[in-house]
Amino acid sequence: GRVRGEIEALREQLRVKEEEEERLSAGIQALDQEVSSVRSQYGAKLERLEERERAVLKEQGECEARAASIEEAEAALRERREAHTQEELAGRRVLEECAKTAS
To answer: 32: domain range?
Structure first.
């Protein structure tokens, strides 16, 4: 009787553990499904955000290239203005010299 009682007690413990394992397994499966759902829901959003980020970075690069081009053009314009101003000053000096020698 005593051995039979111990065997029955062990079988009951085993049954309880198996039920607990089933509950835990079902819980894990539910969590896995929830994780998959969240990944699919936010995965698309994340992909769109990354796509926007790439577009913004591309546009930023284009803007920086245009800004550099504008800076180069402004520098060239300043050089031409300076050269023109120097030519104008030289021309005035020549006219002043001509006016002095003519008088």
So the answer is: 1-73
